[in-house]
Design a protein that fits this description.
mainly beta; 3-stranded antiparallel sheet
């Protein structure tokens, strides 16, 4: 769910007081999106209020870009570096806009102050024949603020076809 409301469970409103809800929006796609939020009295089944939340979702600035080759039928595992520029340790939280193609060996990574760690990326074989795909890795801090955006350009290759081409090239050379 892209829009999360806290508290998530039914709750009581204090009469005559300011009652607050926290809305957290985690974009899954770029562009414009509207959400309708209703407050309902569950005892009476009456609508208390309705809000229309308009969101314009844009990608943060890309901080790193990689071009990777992934075997089409098998998927692959790759590693990319992640640095902590701060003077204190940071837990980074990883997410992607293409969970169908990418998962993380560890969705959170502790990087000590001023150091670099590698994050493990696991690429699933695509469900259909894809020549290429572009996806993003969002690196957020403990407060869920974006620290880094990695753009991954994937080229899917057919290992059997690539091996046959290599054998043909070697035979032609001899």
């Amino acid at each position: 769910v892209a829009l999360r409301i806290e508290p998530a469970a039914p709750f009581n409103l204090a009469p005559g007081a300011l009652n607050e809800l926290a809305l957290t929006l985690r974009p899954t796609h770029m562009g414009r999106k509207q959400y309708v939020v209703h407050a309902v009295d569950l005892n009476r089944g009456a609508l208390l209020a309705a809000w229309l939340v308009n969101a314009v979702q844009r990608l943060p600035a890309v901080t790193k870009a990689f071009s990777l080759t992934v075997p089409h039928r098998y998927g692959a595992s790759k590693k990319v570096s992640l640095s902590n520029p701060y003077t204190h340790d940071v837990h980074f939280v990883l997410s992607t806009d293409r969970p169908d193609l990418l998962s993380f060996k560890q969705p959170t990574v502790l990087v000590p102050a001023g150091e670099t760690r590698y994050i493990g990326l696991k690429f699933a074989p695509p469900p259909a024949v894809l020549g290429s795909a572009k996806l993003h890795v969002f690196v957020n801090n403990e407060e869920d603020k974006n620290e880094e955006l990695m753009e991954l350009s994937l080229a899917f290759t057919d290992i059997a076809r690539a091996a046959a081409s290599s054998r043909e090239a070697a035979a032609a050379a001899s």
